[in-house]
Amino acid sequence: ALNEIECLPSKLNQVFMNILTNCIQAIDGKGKIFIQTISSSLGVKIIFKDTGKGMTPEVKQHIFEPFFTTKDVGKGTGLGLSISYGIIEQHNGNIDVISEPGKGSEFIISLPSK
């Protein structure tokens, strides 16, 4: 069982949907998305990992900035991850990204126990 956390479920749902959408859009053709939850005395981690195209260090550096997007005009506002970052901060958590070009991306959300 996962530890209980104090949260705004609708806000976390928004974060999960934003990350999942990015995972889906990062995959060209067929691919996989893995979702894992880990519970410890400190809190809960939710991990989203995809087999998509991955990110360069330059792109990774900017993904949480408002209006930053790698998508074509009209395909994304560049606000999803910026908003998600803010929501996780409101929950006293953090969000980390591990990514390399050609090796997919991994988003790790850490939320403290209540």
The amount of helix comes to 25-40%
Computed Rg: 14 Å
**What is the overall pLDDT average?**
91
Q: What is the count of DSSP helices, taking H or I runs of 4+ residues?
A: 3
Q: How far is the first residue's CA from the last residue's CA?
A: 15 Å
Task: Sketch the major β-sheet.
Answer: 4 strands, antiparallel
Q: Which strand-content bin applies to the residues?
A: 25-35%
One letter per element, helices H and strands E, the order comes to HEEHHEE
Sheet with the most strands: spatial strand order: 1-2-4-3
Q: Which spans of ≥5 residues are poorly predicted at pLDDT below 50?
A: none
Please state the structural category: alpha+beta
How many β strands by DSSP? 4
Shape: globular
Give the helix/strand layout.
Blueprint: H1 9-26, E1 33-39, E2 43-50, H2 57-62, H3 80-90, E3 94-99, E4 105-112
Helix pairs in contact: 1-3
General description of the model:
With 114 residues, this protein is of the alpha+beta class. It is 31% helix and 25% strand. It has helices at 9-26, 57-62, 80-90, and strands at 33-39, 43-50, 94-99, 105-112. A four-stranded antiparallel beta sheet has the order 1-2-4-3, covered by helices on one side. β3 and β4 (105-112) form a beta hairpin. α1 (9-26) runs antiparallel to α3. The longest helix has 18 residues, at 9-26. The protein starts with 8 loop residues before the first helix and ends with a strand.
